[in-house]
Amino acid sequence: MKTIINNNFLLQTETAQKLYHTFAENQPIMDYHCHLDPRQIAEDHRFENLGEVMLAGDHYKWRAMRSFGIEERLVTGTATWREKFRAYAEMMPYCIGNPLYHWTHLELTRYFGIEESLTAESADRIYDRCTELLGKSGYSARGLMERSNVKVVCTTDDPADTLEYHRQIRESGFSVRVLPTFRPDKTVNIHKDTFLPYMEKIGVKSYADLKAWLISRIDFFHENGCRLSDQGLDFIPCGAGDAGKVFADVLSGVKPTEAEVNLYMTDLLHFLGKEYSKRGWCMQIHVGAMRNNNTAMYRKIGPDTGFDSIADGSLASPLAKLMDSLEQENALPKTILYSLNPNDLYALGTLMGCFQSAECRSKIQLGSGWWFNDQKDGMEAQLRALGNLGILGAFIGMLTDSRSFLSYPRHEYFRRILCNLIGQWVEDGLYPNDSEMLGKIISGICYENAERYFSFSGK
User: Are residues 183 and 296 in the same domain?
Assistant: First the structure.
């Protein structure tokens, strides 16, 4: 059976087709938020087979396999990659409505030229053909990035990271700029089990020491090309008080109260925001995930394995107070707001409008559909919300948020959805059929707005 991927996949009008093929199709990729392993890029990792490159570390696919009743041995367990891929292939025809159906076939088509659908019957044939290709030139970690026309990649990195692989990549002359992103979660989340071991690891004994250490690491990251931070928060804190005392109490073994957690996190995020602003960084805030819900599986195979879900806590008021506290000191950095809960789109979309400035176009951004929302409905909902509440033409576009080197067709997926939506608006008479202006909008969202917004070449 032939794959659904064709020249006009997802492009349902003539205008959409023209917009995509003229202005979006050949745009380069700036993947400003991902979870690729910089070591694999530095060492130009070669993948042994299709199962490894397609299924390793991909919790989207693992969740789906479990939902199909596939035993864990064939998901994250001891089965061979071929066995795991066969199980995935058997599930695939049943994934109607799931973005994995589109993503998987885009990956097979764009990288391997596979023109048939993935099924139990075609699994071995596709596995063998793709594994053969993976042994050829252009299919290593770097080769896959270059084939995808990637220009910039921002990994996600702990403040204590040596960034040795980023330096190795830079010194190698690789055509893709691979830059670090500062992710200070282990210093912020004082209520988590990771906090005390991390403080011991970095040798910090007081809150003043922690702030000094963070400044030194921010400076180090900046010297190595970093221009983004990323805060992964279970909730937006709101509190005031003596954060130093809370820090000291926790280091002495006292469990913090909810109010103490809030005041400490609020104080530290305010401090970090000011430091980012001084250096012209962008602050990303990811909120709304309820993590590690299945305790038994967390204990068995660890975090980030497919057992997180959407939280439904309040964020509008505490986020407004955090941003306002920074704005009052003229220290609110460029900020991208993401919530995993799609119900928060309008809260975030209206809040960002309260803190825009002439510093740059749409200084405060409504982040692209994230995680459970980076599918057709979720992307369209985010685009419509931003169109209704902000300036869609200034949007910095899509990111992969992925650990996979095959994930770049998600940019194509987004671009087709974007062009289809705008094309429909044009055909409905909601916007003029002005090719020049539409071209500026489409090319801007696909690449140029992000290039202007982040200024990675700046000092």
Answer: yes
